[in-house]
Amino acid sequence: MSRRRTAALLTTTLLATGPAACSAAAPTAERPTVPAAPPTSATPAPRVPAGTAPARSFAVGVRQLTLNRDGDRPLPVTIWYPASGPARDEPERSAAAADGRFPVVMFSHGLGGRPDDYAPLLTRWAAAGFLVAAPTFPHTSRGADGNVLDVLNQPADVSYALTQVLALDGRDGDPLRGRLATDRVAAAGHSAGGVTTIGLFTAGRDERLVAGVVFAGTSLGVGTAFAGAAAPQLFVHGALDEVVDYAAGRAAYDAVPWPKAMLSLTDGDHGRALLSDGAALRVVSDTTVEFLRWSLYGDAAAKSRLPTEAARGGLATLDNHL
């Protein structure tokens, strides 16, 4: 496919992927059939030793990291991390980090979005014991020039940012020194960020990644040639997605050759559940937390809880091949 054709398709598909589209009312068109969850089959374990994820809820700290790739791609990164002290309602800026080593999740925002838009979800991940690092992309964030084709450069942005984030673990004087589990890293992203995340496991494969979470994503522009060592994947998609058709997300999911699962929100749109508190966010956050506990901590009990969290409230179904 030509670069011009790819750009046109990306523009058509992702033009409305920002927070405004995510908060739009769900369409009334006939919903697609959501597959029922088949019995879980035995598949390879994640590439981390068996372990146990933290059971407590952490306070959450937040800080900013100023980065620039190649001198012309500014990439400010918001980092949410487990903090010391009792759990609080809001993240505390530059709070002291909790004791321990925490797996890293790199999160990519959608077109016209910013990391803070996803704070209701990402702070829950941090409170569960994960360091979440989210770059603001130079051309697809809110207020930027909206160059949709630049999504194809974002997998390299994430890999660059990951290198800089992991370096904090060994940097003298940094508050996160000795707090990162640098061998336990996942990538996640929504919409255009979902394209970015798929790209990190296909043409732009980053072998440091051991798991992925794709929200309302499509393989358009990055392909489905999943490469490298097996990395479990969790896809999350609304059956009534008005921007990235459910079938497109399902096709990308079907192409994954590794342990995988797909959480289908029966009445879900393009991503409203990720942006504000509610029953759907609780299902999404609890299901993704259990997936990350299993894939990054090696917690087998979390894997066994995942179907229960996905079924809570009857809001979603889970196609489970983990």
Summary, kept brief:
The chain has 322 residues and is an alpha/beta fold.
Explained architecture:
The protein is an alpha/beta fold and 322 residues long. It has a single domain, classed as Alpha/Beta hydrolase fold, catalytic domain (Rossmann fold, 3-Layer(aba) Sandwich). Strands 5-1-4-7-6-8-9-10-11-12 form a 10-stranded mixed sheet, with helices on both faces. A two-stranded antiparallel ribbon has the order 2-3. Helix 8 runs antiparallel to helix 9. The longest helix is centred in the C-terminal third of the chain and has 19 residues. The radius of gyration is 18 Å and the shape is globular. About 9% of the residues have low confidence.
Rounded average pLDDT: 89
Give helix and strand order, one letter per element, not per position.
Answer: HHEEEEEEHEHEHEEHEHHHE
Strand tally: 12
Radius of gyration: 18 Å
Which strand order spans the largest sheet, edge to edge or round the barrel?
Answer: 5-1-4-7-6-8-9-10-11-12
CATH class placement: Alpha Beta
Number of domains: 1
Portion in beta strands? 15-25%
Q: If classified by CATH, what would the architecture be?
A: 3-Layer(aba) Sandwich
Tell me the structural class: alpha/beta
Give the full name of the CATH homologous superfamily: Alpha/Beta hydrolase fold, catalytic domain
Helicity level, as a percent range?
25-40%
CATH T-level topology: Rossmann fold
Outline, from the CA principal axes? globular
Count every helix, treating DSSP H or I runs of 4 or more residues as helices. 9
